[in-house]
Amino acid sequence: MADVMTEVGVRPRRDDDLPSCVEALSAVHRTDAYPVNWPADPGLWLTPDGLLEAWVAAAGPEVFGHVAITGGVDGGPVSVARLFVTSRARRRGVAGALLDPARAWAAARGLGLVLEVEDGGRAAIAFYERHGWRRVGTAESDWTTADGRTALMHTYVAPADEV
To answer: Rounded to an integer, what distance in angstroms lies between the CA atom of residue 4 and that of residue 135?
Structure first.
């Protein structure tokens, strides 16, 4: 594993990456329950409406992580979406490396960067807060978690020096 992990790089997602992205997402879902509710079409879930760009952390054909950005209507902020990293690639800077092109893309266009995290995503919340993201709101969502709770979504904005 160490040899493969040293070869992991971040690049734009290609259409032929989707099967490997779905495999990686499935592994994340099994270990971390992300996404909370498994989508009927995971490839489509990874390609949401309003998708602007997506990147993968990969070594050869194997995907270890993914991030997308969506939104940005009328100069508004763009949203980080579908960010995940497999357990094999954690604590190696992969999540931060995936966020780098999203931040650069937004900054190049003078756009803010936001994201939402469900309250149960404690590790993700800790990651974002450690990296300076600021919580600006919390609201109930219109969907329920696997344990039957109404999803509680926290909205974060990127640190000001990053956009």
So the answer is: 35
Query: Residue 162 and residue 112: Cα distance in Å, rounded?
Result: 9
Class of domain 2-162: alpha beta
Domains in the chain: boundaries:
2-162
Taking only the tens place, the pLDDT of each residue in 86-122 is 999 998 999 999 999 999 999 999 999 999 999 988 9
Give the span between the Cα atoms of 104 and 139, in whole angstroms. Answer: 28
What the block records as the tokens of 124 is 């993700």
- How far apart are alpha carbons 88 and 25 in whole angstroms? 12
* Residue 23 and residue 63 in contact, taking contact as beta carbons nearer than 8 Å: yes
- Encoded amino acid at 123, one letter: A
Q: What DSSP character marks residue 35? A: S
Q: Which residues face 152 on adjacent strands? A: 140
Q: Dump pLDDT digits (tens) for 43-73.
A: 999 999 999 999 999 998 999 999 999 997 7
